[in-house]
């Protein structure tokens, strides 16, 4: 049984607006929510549409629901923490019910350089573990990782190539020192 959908109302529906306020306040205590997420929750709990709209309008009016602020915070958090590209961020915001225009404004805060730097950090973190693989396999796996995070093929290919070239240069420098006889350098 889905805990969000209750057969009968959990509380008396004598005052559906009061029930809706309580549900929304409890939901907002844990984490910010979009207006659509709260509307879906209220519908699932059997709150009449007119009562839900009244409460949601009031919560929006007083600033408890702010989809634009939610979208900005979501983009900042997910881009920095998970390294998601703008495309993936837009898809996540759409799934949360954020208006497309509001989502687009929030995603615009991530510029091309931010996106490229995030992709590079992701690849650099993974490249070390792929040193034992041939370059084609490492490239395929790194490109797949970036694609799952919403990066375009062109950007992913460029970043992967750069990082793998840097790793190859580092490895070549390290190989030169493998043949070095350290004892011959000591007095």
UniProtKB/TrEMBL annotation:
Residues 114-159 form the RecX third three-helical domain. Residues 20-58 form the RecX first three-helical domain. Signal peptide: none annotated. Residues 66-106 form the RecX second three-helical domain. Its main location: cytoplasm. Keywords: Cytoplasm. The keyword Protein biosynthesis does not apply. It is found in: Cytoplasm. Belongs to the RecX family. Modulates RecA activity. This is Regulatory protein RecX. It comes from Blastococcus brunescens.
């Amino acid at each position: 049984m889905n805990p969000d959908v209750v057969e009968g109302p959990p509380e008396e529906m004598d005052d559906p607006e009061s029930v809706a306020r309580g549900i929304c306040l409890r939901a907002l205590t844990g984490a910010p929510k979009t207006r659509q997420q709260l509307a879906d929750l209220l519908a699932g709990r059997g709150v009449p549409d007119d009562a839900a709209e009244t409460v949601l309008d009031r919560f929006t009016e007083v600033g408890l629901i702010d989809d634009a602020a939610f979208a900005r915070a979501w983009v900042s958090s997910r881009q920095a923490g998970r390294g998601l590209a703008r495309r993936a961020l837009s898809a996540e915001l759409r799934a949360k019910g954020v208006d497309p225009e509001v989502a687009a404004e929030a995603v615009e805060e991530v510029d091309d350089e931010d996106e490229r730097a995030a992709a590079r950090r992701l690849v650099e973190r993974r490249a070390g573990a792929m040193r034992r693989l041939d370059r084609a396999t490492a490239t395929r796996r790194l490109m797949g990782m970036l694609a799952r995070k919403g990066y375009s093929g062109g950007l992913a290919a460029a970043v992967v190539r750069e990082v793998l070239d840097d790793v190859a240069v580092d490895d070549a420098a390290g190989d030169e020192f493998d043949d070095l006889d350290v004892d011959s350098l000591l007095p």
